[in-house]
Amino acid sequence: LFISGASAANEVIRNENLWASARARENAHRASVKKGDLPASLSWADMNGTSYLSPIRNQHIPVYCGSCWAMGSTSALSDRFNIMNGPSYAPSMYLSVQNVISCGNEYDKCGTCNGGDDLPVYQYAAEVGIPHESCNNYRATNEECLSDNTYNSACYTCDPGLAGCYGVTDY
Fold it and tell me: In what helix (H) or strand (E) does residue 165 lie, and over which residues does it extend?
């Protein structure tokens, strides 16, 4: 969902300058690969018996949320991390979609449960970072970012006891 003007809350405006810059970088680094140089097939889901892919997720659980853009981009980043670190790295990377919806949207207007744009997610990841899913579980809701103002951390947890919610600084 891309809106040309921001007239309502949570509307996403595509950052055309960011996309133009990305296209220019892509064209500058494009290499020519011959068909014969490529393998006949390749699957990161079964690379010598190991899957490097993050789990399949459902953006509509626990409630409907148009976060496919956030699910796809965080899964792609998680998969790249898992491939880079190899099968001995545990646990496998699983980035927080809720952090992207809440904090990423506040940072660079990448999107909400009403739709979004994946390229700003990659910018947010490079400039700020995205914590693991266990730091900010997916709730499928448009929320304000509680990380910095409330908990001083992108990772926080809640204790049912007297402590309430608090930031986790060593994660």
Answer: strand 164-167
Residue 69: what pLDDT?
A: 94
DSSP state, residue 88: T
Q: Which residue has the tokens 């790295």?
A: 89
Q: Which amino acid is at 36?
A: G
Output phi, psi for 90, to 5 deg: -140, 140
Alpha helices in 33-146 (DSSP H): 68-85, 97-99, 105-108, 118-127
pLDDT-based confidence at 135, cuts 50/70/90? confident
Contact 57, 75 (CB under 8 A): yes
The pTM is what?
0.77
Q: How many CB atoms lie within 10 A of CB 35?
A: 5
Task: Report the C-alpha gap between 59 and 134 in whole angstroms.
Answer: 17
Tokens of 161: 């006891």
The mean of the pLDDT values for the chain is: 82
| Residues written for the chain | 171
